[in-house]
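Dear colleague,

Following up on yesterday's call, I've attached the two folding results inline so they're easy to grep. Please treat them as preliminary; we haven't cross-checked anything against experimental data yet. The first protein's sequence and structure tokens come first.
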Amino acid sequence: MSPFAAAIQDILGPEGKLAQFLEGFEFRPSQLKMALDLMAAIQHKKGAIAEAGTGTGKTFAYLVPLILSDKKSVISTGTKNLQEQIYFKDLSLLKKAAGLSSHAVLMKGRKNYVCLERYHHYFSQAPMRDEARPDMKDRLDAWLQTTEFADRAEVSWLPEADTLWDLISASSDQCLGVECPYHDRCFLGRLRREAAGAKMIIVNHHLFFADMKVKAGGFGEIIPRFQVAVFDEAHQVEEVAAGYLGERISTRQLQELISDCQKEIRGPEGIENGGVGAALTEIQVGMAEMRDRLSRGEDRGSIDPERLGILRAGPGQRILKGLERVGREMPLNETNRSERQAILLRARDLGQGLELILNQQDSTWLTWYERRGKLVVLHATPLDISASLHELLYPKVQSTLFTSATLSAKGTFDYIRSRLGLREETHEAIYPSHFHFETQCMLYVPRDLPLPADPEFGPAAAGRVTEILKLSKGRALVLFTSYHNLNLVWERVKDQLPYDILRQGDAPRSVLLKAFREDIPSVLMATGSFWQGVDIPGEALSCLIMDKLPFASPTDPLVAARIDAVRRNGGNPFMEYQVPAAIIAFKQGMGRLIRSSADRGIMAVLDGRILSSPYGRHFLESLPPIPMGHHLSDIAEFFKSTPTTEVKNAPQAVGRRF
């Protein structure tokens, strides 16, 4: 046994340091095997892809070999919550239990940190000072005297909805760089200097791929160079990477530029500079026309060549001319040079990005838009990121490791390998969970409901959800593939049960999850983002209901374009792209239910295609071995042996008000 393998065994083994330190420690053979395999990949400078079932303890399985290797590493996660768990909890536990420590730094996006220039500028304005409340400034001043990096997460007393933070933090567009009068005291600069000397940097996927784009453009770096990259929650990598490897321009970015320009031209030396004012008006007119041109149809849609030509010749041309004129007309002098120079650079970058989008003709890219209220975003997105990863990631590091609870589909890694362009020599393995799913869980699939394409499916599903929730006594997460079905079922169920029926959109995600976690009998109905990253161990989540198999909508512009791309290349888009992607989402949903060895619960899938279609078996085979029932009596029998919290004096709920 190699010294590294022996050290891993000494920490994660059945008689290891963690076992001795933690009361109730459960030895996890899959965790030990995964750690040994990842250590071998790091030593041999190879890549690895590791699916680690729920409860495997994958975080320790990669942290231990990373620390022992003593190589400079970056851990990229899907969420800030996981970043903070690794930094504050997992690394601390390893140090206490095993004496294993590494100089680690937590890095988030720029907007998570106070910008001293914008902070002082904001509070120096008397009207703004009144609006921001003097007591708030006093608290922030005291905090800034003690904080190391001025991270937003440290000021929990500042409400999430408070807009003040946006005014005292800076986007990359708004940063003055070396021209900033506070450059030497910049919190983000201090963090980056700390990261340069650290052995481990913990980021999220958005920051990782923003850094990749910056490095590819030759404009410096956000994350210092590293030897090993670990992607946790790696099933999210393709979507995030595609967004950063493409181009994106929003009306919000343009409006922020206009607002900053207006503040400058109304300064002491320039009262309304006519040329700049006219340029801003031209941009605003172009934005209004752009919104109008894209106001019809779906909230997300592709832009065909004809429509793109109309946008390019009309509103796009107006906006580009306005941006160019800002660059010509904005006066510079010694008192305002740094601020105005930053504005000019933003105008230039926005113009270049907009031109790239409006002139995109590559068939391997998609030009598309999305609307969010008055906000319009234009995108040019690559349909295949594998070539970019081969150029910009894999050759730059010694080892690239991908891990998640859901990476395989139909028993192989073929899908994720093709989407991420993984090298042939990349090690792959599935590390099963040590949970006893055959006794902890039951799958319920009714045979008597209409199929999802039937108009009667929605009402029938609402009735069945109500019956299931009565048997489970609430305590359920109900996941939908569309807001239409969510709202239909919520309207029919909310007055039928003596529990709070929480609905996505009625409050911020964090508020809903807190209420769901603390009010044991409550029910949470949700879509999209709640299929993953929800951690509710214990009795509060004893039943998981899915209305349909989670196929991505073929009307979504990116999904439709990827389907066409697979077809053009002679493939079968349904079996090669749509089914594998749906299986991974399905497994993510299943992962919400059993979060510990003490959890027990029902997984109900109301979509009969899982039994009747040829591809349904692939979904069933993706689950751990669990018993299946088809009758409500099977659910009743399961819960007979599961203790529940009594609901005493529960009023008839009409949906919680936030």
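Below is the second protein, in the same order (sequence, then structure):
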Amino acid sequence: MNAPLQALRPIQPLPDQLISQIAAGEVVERPAAVVKELLENALDAGASTIFIRLEQGGVKRIAITDDGRGIAPEQMPLALARHATSKIASLTDLEHVATLGFRGEALASIASVALLTLTTRTVEAAHAWQLDGATATAAIPSSGALGTTVDVQDLYFNTPARRKFLKSEQTEFGHCAEVVRRIALSRPDVTFSLTHNGRTVDHWGVAEIAKRSAQILGAEFAAARLHLDETAGAVRLHGFAGLPTAAKARGDAQYFYVNGRFVRDKLLTHAVRAAYQDVLHGERFPAYVLALEIDPSQVDVNVHPSKIEVRFRDSRSIHQFVFHAVSRALAQTSATAFGSAPAPQATPSAAMPWRREQQGSFAAAFAGAPVANPGGGFGRPAGVAQTLADYGALFSTEVTGGAPSLAGSMPPSRPMPSEEYPLGFALAQLHGVFILAQNAQGLVIVDMHAAHERILYEQLKDALDGDAMQVQAMLIPVTFHADAVEVGTVEEHAATLQTLGFDIAVLSPHTLAVRAVPALLRNADAQSLARDVLRDVREFGGSRVLLEQRNALLGTLACHTAVRANRNLAIPEMNALLRQMENTERADQCNHGRPTWVQLGHGDLDKLFMRGQ
């Protein structure tokens, strides 16, 4: 039964207090939102040290003190007024925002739903000044050091309905602490101290980003991360990407910043996820701390009240830049890091160098087609070894240490382990599944099927990417009903679709026809594939769907072609496999994201046998 309509009142302007409370509903969602706005103001003021004091999860009190520039006493009432700011003055300023805050409504919104006291002192002032509440018209003398303290008490005291939606004290504190962590990660040059109910919870002094990220994300992340720093024109991406083996069950260790601002942007998340897509196991989530620096005029930060979303002027280029930068970082693994000692559990050092390759075009990611063979199905492109025996011929007995028997006995002259070969040299085979090798750090255990699978998979991808995109024309075009957005996408992104190997025609305002698809995916459902690709192209400027489907096919081929378990390998064959791993990108994981090898160092072996204890 429908509720009766409320009687309409005459149109009238809203009171300023109510306007501020409505705005507070967007800006001050919970105590954590207050912490975020005040911390951003402190950083914009040039603070080098910030103290955050919380009581009862921030509901009872939020007090943030900084040592920034402070506010002149005559401007303090304006600081609490709606839409008053020192950070922008024109549309040009808005289009080139370089500060974290700029709307000029945070303090006014907070003051409308809480008891707010502002205490501040500039370097020119003889003493501090204090202003109580949003209705005060003039500041009064007070005591205080250089900088500003914003003291917010009894949040939502005048809007009890909103207060009822808050969670438990510990939950609200958890959200506040996460906001502090996000901002502290972006500014390792600033000291942050967080207390809750009088107890110090976190304190981070000025440090390098490597140390700050280790402090916040933990030692596990610090031991399993890759450093990356790439530039393309005026765009730079730098930070740390966690190794696939350190992926988590939840996506709570993903920090992305655009010009110093923490964002949750689906385009950037999609680009990073695509880079990890064939090295993650199951539904795991990678950990990363990445910062994108871009001309402020090329990104719109004014698309969401909480400023957590952004919009790029050239979203496709940004997506591809991030995707390729992270992909190249992940392509370098412990096994391929010649001259670098692999850390325990195959986790390379954060400072490990990685190869810089030419950034491929968007089409290159999907280029290539299957090589026909008389027996039907996918043939093996040129350059892909048939078996491990093919690899053995590539290495002389000087490297393998002589020709051993097939029974797995030791070669007459085994070479000494060296840093030149991170995976060392084979000792024996265990149960027809694992290769045991000795390197400079200790014992290496290799899953030979998983390792060979990754080698073949990467070779198949390289072989296909080296050819021009081949398409398969449909004998009978597949037509389907489409909405206006899909039709518009075909018309607007025709060139991109053609680059991806698609020929999609508009037959009517509500009908599309698929006339050609990439040859590699000719057996896929054309309608579903086209819809997925149109969605990706519309949202991200490209399609992860094609890459995933292509890689799934190649992964299946590699899996069935790789050396099977319980096959006895000779020592030269084992060594040949180790050398191939050292020259194969992403060799630390198989196609399904599982590790291909682990390292047991001398210390690990000593512990197993209680040596030195």
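For the second protein, one point worth flagging: The longest helix spans residues 169-186.

Best wishes,
A.L.
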